[in-house]
Amino acid sequence: MASPSSDEVSASTLQLPWFVAGSQALGIGCVVLVGIWMGHYRGGFSWNRDELEFNVHPLCMILGMVFLYGDAIMVYRIFRQESKKCIKIVHAVIHLGALLITIIGFVAVFHFHDAKNIPNLYSLHSWLGLTTVVMFGLQWIIGFLIFLYPGGLAALRAWYLPLHTFFGLAIFTLAIASSLTGMTEKLLFSLNKSYKDMPVEAMLANSLGLLLVAFSVVVGYIVTRPEWKRPSQAEEEALSMHFHRITRGDDEDD
Amino acid sequence: MASPSSDEVSASTLQLPWFVAGSQALGIGCVVLVGIWMGHYRGGFSWNRDELEFNVHPLCMILGMVFLYGDAIMVYRIFRQESKKCIKIVHAVIHLGALLITIIGFVAVFHFHDAKNIPNLYSLHSWLGLTTVVMFGLQWIIGFLIFLYPGGLAALRAWYLPLHTFFGLAIFTLAIASSLTGMTEKLLFSLNKSYKDMPVEAMLANSLGLLLVAFSVVVGYIVTRPEWKRPSQAEEEALSMHFHRITRGDDEDD
């Protein structure tokens, strides 16, 4: 596909805030729905190695691996005027927050399994979830070493950037898929045969599933639409040089 | 990101066949594993509105919505020398095959539910699956009308192409997520408490889940890597004009 023209870019950039606002409404909707599901229908939260500690797991996963992770990958699109360096740090810090909340969610489910003598890591959900979190951790460490740690080679950065972007979105999608399998498990374990009768809890959880999909589709669209990409480093430097010249009041020729 | 240079394109194009071969090994692996799971561990297939008719459902979904769908979206990358018109038809025909197999898979599960008096469309899996198939059907019809039906407007095609590409990949990813939730349901319904003991069937199904994810990641990488995109229509026409001139033996100047 040809690169979009500057007219196309500026026309479509006006739509971006609406898409970002929509993504935030969907993402906050996901966190609120999982909070109501676990907080109201499943009895609330605790940290006492009991049934209620399990409830911390879905809340943390959707807050960390879905909502914060999704927001972290959108920061380059949302903050278009700020310096790349500054946005890189925001991106890494939100991801670090997401990773820490994810680890708390992991600990919660291991505590619950140990207390109830349920084996860990036997289900497809657990295999997918573990794969997602390990890939996320590796992606964070490699990203930090290559893009933020001083002394990174420009050639290495340029080679790794498309892989980082591709796997960033792949891990996000895998987090959504893992959440959907975990929700299926939880619905079958806790509602069992009454799931078929579609109680309010089932409707709420199914709706949460669709909302997660909608959030991931909107985030995916925002981060992949070519017109919404930031100008490349070279273009950015040229613009900043130009701005520097204008503010110094120099001629174009100097 | 800047467009890749022609050196980068030709160097990376040499890797493409290896990625395509890998995708086919993974995709065929998925179809074989679901065949063994349903054919061997779940008793085989039938079309008699019984337990065995259910087994047609996962086989058709993975063959149609995953393997054939994945291959259909890769044809523009795999057949780089053939005319765009020809590849469009191949793309539409493979997708039509995928859609028909998917509909057979849908009928199988509705037959099974009706025979067993199980309500339809109550679970998160069914909501996700229905959303996926409805979106796929709409995408096929809209794509056919805009890209293949004679008299389509070039401006409309240019506007719709990025949306068609984005939603094509989103529907594929949703098909993978739907499959993973369906597999989780099937494992909990059929193995129930013995799932925790990790029998061979559980290991096989969990491995199928990881293989589905690996297939989708490789297909996603092949269709999104910028160096592997086909040259744009304008570049293609220029190349074909040039070729036409050479074969006619005319001078460059005529």
UniProtKB/TrEMBL annotation, chains A, B:
Keywords: Cytoplasmic vesicle, Electron transport, Heme, Iron, Membrane, Metal-binding, Translocase, Transmembrane, Transmembrane helix, Transport. Its main location: membrane. It is a multi-pass membrane protein. This is Transmembrane ascorbate-dependent reductase CYB561. GO terms for cellular component: chromaffin granule membrane; lysosomal membrane. It catalyses: monodehydro-L-ascorbate radical(out) + L-ascorbate(in) = monodehydro-L-ascorbate radical(in) + L-ascorbate(out). It comes from the Eukaryota. It is found in: Cytoplasmic vesicle, Secretory vesicle, Chromaffin granule membrane. InterPro entries: CYB561/CYBRD1-like, Cyt_b561/ferric_Rdtase_TM. Residues 22-224 form the Cytochrome b561 domain. The keyword ATP-binding does not apply. SMART domains: B561. Transmembrane reductase that uses ascorbate as an electron donor in the cytoplasm and transfers electrons across membranes to reduce monodehydro-L-ascorbate radical in the lumen of secretory vesicles. It is therefore involved the regeneration and homeostasis within secretory vesicles of ascorbate which in turn provides reducing equivalents needed to support the activity of intravesicular enzymes. The chain crosses the membrane at residues 16-36, 56-77, 89-112, 124-149, 161-183, 203-223. It holds the Pfam family Cytochrom_B561. One of its GO terms (molecular function) is metal ion binding. Its cofactor is heme b.
